[in-house]
Specification:
81 residues, mainly alpha, globular
Length: 81
């Protein structure tokens, strides 16, 4: 089956979206933006969905304005892996 420029399957898309969300949700706003730039550079279509999930997450967790450097970076992923 021809898949064009190797688009992701729905399962792959969900997995990547989830990985990116988890890796940035605990970051401060500036660091989160930088990480989204990096992690979504090859998947720009995911960013609006991730930002929507992050906005909802922040609204229910009360974490809309975390200071820079206040979060752990343990969940970061490498988009090239």
């Amino acid at each position: 089956m021809f898949r064009g420029l190797n688009p992701m399957t729905p399962s792959e898309r969900y997995q990547l979206l989830t990985q990116i969300f988890i890796s940035v949700c605990s970051l401060g706003q500036e660091e989160r933006c930088r990480e989204l730039d990096r992690l979504c550079r090859d998947h720009a279509d995911l960013r609006p969905e991730i930002e929507l999930l992050l906005a909802f997450h922040d609204s229910v967790s009360g974490a809309t304005a975390r200071p820079e450097g206040s979060s752990a970076t343990a969940g970061k992923i490498d988009p090239d892996s």
